[in-house]
Every structure is written in C-alpha cells, then in structure tokens.
Amino acid sequence: MNLEYLESFYITVKCNSISKAAKSLHLTQPGLSMQLRNLEKELGASLLKRSNKGVELTEEGKVVFDYADTLLSIQGNIQRDLKNLQQERPQLMIGSCKSVGEYALPCSIYTFKQLHEEVDIHMKVNSSAEVIENLLNHTINIGIIQHDPKVDDIVTQTIVSDELLLVGNCFDAPKQISMEELKEIPLILRERNSGTRYLVEKAFQEKGIELEDLNVIYDLNSPEAIKSSIVAGKGFSFLPKLIIQQELKKHSIEPVTIDDLTIPFEYYVASRKKYKFTDYEQMFVDFIISSKRGFC
C-alpha cells in the first residue's frame, strides 16, 4: 500500500475538504484527487463520497481511516526514533498558546534546560487552535493550550488552573460593573481561534449574550499589544491572570469585577492520542505538570 496516498486520504478526511487538504499537503487539487483515486483503485473500494459540503466516508472508508490513523502514527514513531538515533542530541518540539508561550513557559524551559543541558528545545508560539493543528500535522509533539479542544485524536493533561479577568486602565477602570454595563464599555479582544477568545465567547453565550451585543472596538493577536492598549486608556479586555501578575502588582492596570460572571479555565498539555513520548519528552511533561514546579 502506498503510504503517501494513505496519508493524503487521511488528511483529506481530517480537513473535510479536497482544497484544504491539497493546501496542507502542498499538492494541487487535481494531484490530490488522482492520489485518492489511485488509493481506491489499489484497495478495490470506494472510500469517499464528495459533495458541496465536503467529503464523507463510505463504510469501507471508515475501516481504512481507522487503519490509516494507526499506520501513520506508527510511521511517525519510527521516523522519530530513527531520527533521534541519528542525532547526537535529543530534541523537544513544543508548541504553546501565546498566554503561556510568551510569559511563563520560557522560564520553565530555561529551568528544564539547566537540568538537562544535552537536550535541544524548540518552541513555536501560536494560538491554541494552531497548536492543535501543528500536533495533528506532526510538526510538534507537545502542545501547551488554554482549553481542552475535545478533539478525538488529541489527549490532554491538566497543568494549572487560571482565570480570565476583565482589566482596564488604572485611572478609569471601575471596581465593579453589571452585565448590562459590560455591554457599553469599549472591549479589545484576542483574535479569532485564540483560546482566550473561545473562553470569552463561551462564557457570554452561557449568559445568553453574543459578541454582537458588546462594544468590541477591535481585536489583536498579541497579549502585549492588548496590555499596551489598556494602559494607554484605549479600552478594556479579558486577559489570563497568569500573564498580568506584574501589572496588577504595579497597579498599571486594574481588575474589574462583573456581577454574576467569572471565567475560570485550565491550561493543558496536549499530545496525539497514539503518540508515545520519548524519555525526554515525558520528563518535560512530568516537569511541567509537577505541582512543585510547573510554570515559573
């Protein structure tokens, strides 16, 4: 069986789109369609039903997809282990959401590196959604994310609990507001697909409020840019308590309590369900989760 064709089939199902899968695989759409036809011809079965809504697995396709998941995972483990044997130094490929990756995690990585100087550590900082995508694409093996995505192929372990706080300028921020008053204040939000944005939307929806009901003036993809905007008096925002501890101590920004609204959440270590950590990856995960160490 051609594993390249099998991977193309697998990615197509995960993307639920020929065009998106072709882009992910760096293929043309006709080229990907040809690979899928060749795989079906090789197996003697129709695997996909194509429609305007995407692709749907046939009964035969469901069987092949389950085996593809296992085979490609094994293939990834083989490639990883062989690569580690060929390299002089072990590697850690880590992806992190911005709320942790730009603040607490670098300190933890530095401490881990002091304990294990032989390890080369590479970290990518993206939104939580992009971290999950990179895990599924096998470009990283360890993800640090802001909420559990409930994705079938991803498993998570809790690291630490946190809370989103509404914060404003130290001169203008009220101590407490109602839900109705919240609708009037100028809000700066994180970009779509970020973990913080997801948590805010979910908390509002549970209160029967949509983002369209709020006075959102703009969104930014950088927590630091949001903090600068708040300090400059441009508006208010929801930010994780973990990343604003220094600003709260210095009183450069102030928390605003909202009647009947709190947004607790947890940070997680995420990985592929069928992926087995190397010894050093497991040591790093244990190090991060450890209640005595965790984030700096």
From TrEMBL:
<keyword id="KW-0804">Transcription</keyword>
<feature type="domain" description="HTH lysR-type">
    <location>
        <begin position="1"/>
        <end position="58"/>
    </location>
</feature>
<dbReference type="InterPro" id="IPR036390">
    <property type="entry name" value="WH_DNA-bd_sf"/>
</dbReference>
<keyword id="KW-0238">DNA-binding</keyword>
<dbReference type="Pfam" id="PF00126">
    <property type="entry name" value="HTH_1"/>
</dbReference>
<comment type="similarity">
    <text>Belongs to the LysR transcriptional regulatory family.</text>
</comment>
<dbReference type="InterPro" id="IPR005119">
    <property type="entry name" value="LysR_subst-bd"/>
</dbReference>
<dbReference type="InterPro" id="IPR036388">
    <property type="entry name" value="WH-like_DNA-bd_sf"/>
</dbReference>
<keyword id="KW-0805">Transcription regulation</keyword>
<protein>
    <submittedName>
        <fullName>LysR family transcriptional regulator</fullName>
    </submittedName>
</protein>
<dbReference type="Pfam" id="PF03466">
    <property type="entry name" value="LysR_substrate"/>
</dbReference>
<dbReference type="InterPro" id="IPR000847">
    <property type="entry name" value="LysR_HTH_N"/>
</dbReference>
